[in-house]
Every structure is written in C-alpha cells, then in structure tokens.
Amino acid sequence: MHIILATEIWGHTPHVDTLAERLRSCASDVVVIDPYDGTDPDFGCEQDAYAAYCRQCGHEAFAARVEQALVRAGGDTVLVGFSAGATAVWSVLCAAECEARGGVGFYGSGIRTLLDRTPRAPVELVFPAYEEHFDVGTVVDSLAAQPDVRCHVVPQGHGFMNPLAAHFDPSAHEAWTSWLVRRMAAFTAS
C-alpha cells in the first residue's frame, strides 16, 4: 500500500518528514505532496504561509498535485491530508476517476465549500470543535450524512497536529498520530 501525505500551507517541513517516517511502518511508500515543490519555505507566521500558498499554488492546483500523485501511485493508495491538504484529499476522493482506497483528513476547513460532493472511497475527517469562519457542527452533520464518511470533532484548535501552528497540542498530536498509524495499518489489512 502507498500513502500520499498532503501537507498544510506550511509546506514540507521537518515535522512532516517525522510523520512520514512513522507512516512508513504501515506502507510500502509514503509520498509527500506540498504546495512548494518539496521545499521548506520556513515561514515566520501563518499569515505569511497562507499568502504564499494562495500566490504560489491555491486549492485547485494543490488538489491537482495530489491527484497526479495518486495516478502515479496507483489504486492501492490511501490519501492523508492536513488543512489545505485535507481539502485537496477531499477533492480527489470525490473525483469521478478516483481510485484511492480511502483517505483521512485533519481540519480541512475548505471542505465546507465542497459539501455538494460525495467521496468515492471511505474517508475519516477530524475537525476542531471551533473554526472562526464557519459552524463546524453544521459541516460535520452534512458530511456525516454521506455514506463512507466518518467525522471526529476534537476540542483542540485548527492546526493542533502542526508544531508551527498557534493551536499545536503536543499530547493531542501524539494521540492522533498513533490513531493515524493504526488507521493506515487497518487499510493495509483490508
């Protein structure tokens, strides 16, 4: 099994490599897709990262990168994404030609604009209890009504898995990383 790991707007940072290494325990290959062609731009703050993301890539182009990686990897692939990467994963899982085995997305706030789409493979989504720009409960209710969509709502804030984010939570990061490794192992076993 292959795993495609779509990053946040921060790009391919050292903590992404650490996560990819942990995921290699349950996959033959982990491919990291990011908005900046594999570089670590080392942003000073989230606003700088978001501005660069919008300028250099954007949501549609990022989803296209994830989709191209899936085509290269083949059907025995699971998609994992964080924030903008989770939105890209959702877009790819909902594409008519999607051949992924499934996916997992953490705090993909952009999914709220894509609720009219239905994934073609099982997906689990992890949302923070609060997002500044939308009502999480409404989005989760809409998504959870779809077949093969499972949603989790956590008390941590957006970005809790990213050491660079304001809402980083080390204990939640460890707990959810362990959960993610178990989920990937379950995909391998199925």
Outline:
This protein has 190 residues and is of the alpha/beta class. It contains 6 helices and 6 strands, in the order βαβααβαββαβα.
**Rg value:** 15 Å
Sheet of most strands: 6 strands, parallel
Q: Strands of the biggest beta sheet: in what spatial order?
A: 2-1-3-4-5-6
Terminal-residue CA separation: 11 Å
Question: Counting H and I runs of at least 4 residues, what is the number of helices?
Answer: 6
Fraction of residues in helix: 25-40%
Total strand count, please? 6
Low-confidence stretches: none
Strand content: 15-25%
Tell me the overall shape: globular
Structural class: alpha/beta
Please characterize this protein's 3D structure:
The structure is a single chain. The chain is an alpha/beta fold and 190 residues long. It is built from six helices and six strands, in the order E-H-E-H-H-E-H-E-E-H-E-H. A six-stranded parallel sheet has the order 2-1-3-4-5-6, with helices on both faces. It starts with a strand and ends with a helix. The mean pLDDT is 95.
